[in-house]
C-alpha cells in the first residue's frame, strides 16, 4: 500500500471517528428528549448520520452511524435499543449519495424523507417484537416521526453551510 493510500485511509478513519462522536453527542445530549415509556427519545443525531453518509464512503459512514448511535443508547440508559439501533442506523446511510461536489442536492434532500420513514418503520417493527404487539408499537411510533423532521432540518442547514465553504472539494472528500 502506498503512502498516499495509507494517508487517505487514515483520513477516512479519523473523519468516521469524528462523525461517530458527533452522532453520539447529538443523539445523547443535544436536544435529547425522552418520549413514552419505552426508553426511547427524540434527538437530532440522525442529522450527523446523514452528514456521514454524504462525506464518507458507505462502509465508513455505516460504521460511524452504528458506533455513534449505539453508544448513545448505552450511555443514556436505553441499552435495550442498542442492538436494533446498530442495525437500523447504518441502513439509513444507503439512501444518500457522496458522489457529488455538493452535500445538498435533490437526492440527498429526498433521502432525508426516505431515511426518516424507513427508520421509523424499522424501529416500530423492533419495538413490536420487543413488546409483542406491532399495533401498539405503531401507535407509540407516531411520536417518533418528529425526530426525522428535526434531523432533516439540521442536516440541510449544516449541509448548506458546508456547501458554501466548499468542504467536500477543500478536504478531498469526493467519492471516486
Automatic annotation (TrEMBL):
Family matches, as InterPro entries: CHP04002, ECF_substrate-spec-like
Pfam family, one: ECF-ribofla_trS
Keywords: Membrane, Transmembrane, Transmembrane helix
Transmembrane residue ranges: 12-35, 47-72, 78-97, 109-126, 138-162
One term under GO cellular component: membrane
Gene3D superfamilies: 1.10.1760.20
Protein name per the record: TIGR04002 family protein
